[in-house]
Amino acid sequence: PFACEYCEKRFSKNDALTVHVRRHTGEKPFACEYCDKTFARSGDLKVHVRTHTGEKPFVCEYCEKTFSQNGALTVHVRTHTGEKPFACEYCEKTFSTNGDLIKHVRTHTGEKPFACVYCDKAFAQSSDLTVHVRTHTGEKPFACEYCEKTFSANGDLTRHVRTHTGEKPFACEYCEK
């Protein structure tokens, strides 16, 4: 019986409508006591406050690792159980998180929803766009601890550091190289 005045959605409880309307109005009445962030829902504030307090009330039954959010625990437990409930509709692959499935499906569809504001390139993953944008801005946030070099991508720094450490993590399966 409770209808949104901004869109066609309806709700069975007035509280649910109130929270929904905040998406339209931008109202965020729940303020963090530690920083300037505000939230539309009290539950979101409660989860956020844990980033300040360090509280991690959700404990893994397999290894006792702790988490601040139940959803993070659920995903973690799948590393122990091997559960992969998200299946690709195009092939046989399954995934432990919906996000991993979404990224994978783009390899089939060719969808590239992350567009560069500086040029006409687009990317399937936001992280690839982030690295690409640095080619336009010149930002190089990854610094070598051994010399003055900086890099736009963390992987480039990792490869560079090996020139200092001598680390060679990849071995040929046929010979000793």
Tell me about this structure.
The chain is α+β, with helices and mostly antiparallel strands and 177 residues long. The chain is built from 6 helices and 12 strands. The strands form 6 sheets. A two-stranded antiparallel sheet has the order 1-2. A two-stranded antiparallel ribbon has the order 3-4. It has a two-stranded antiparallel ribbon with strand order 5-6. It is extended, with a radius of gyration of 23 Å. The termini are far apart.
Shape call: extended
Q: Biggest β-sheet: count, sense, barrel?
A: 2 strands, antiparallel
Mean pLDDT: 96
Uncertain runs with pLDDT below 50, 5 residues or more? none
Topology:
Elements lengths: L1 E2 L6 E2 L2 H12 L4 E2 L6 E2 L2 H12 L4 E2 L6 E2 L2 H12 L4 E2 L6 E2 L2 H12 L4 E2 L6 E2 L2 H12 L4 E2 L6 E2 L2 H12 L12
Antiparallel strand pairs: 1-2, 3-4, 5-6, 7-8, 9-10, 11-12
In short:
The chain is α+β, with helices and mostly antiparallel strands and 177 residues long.
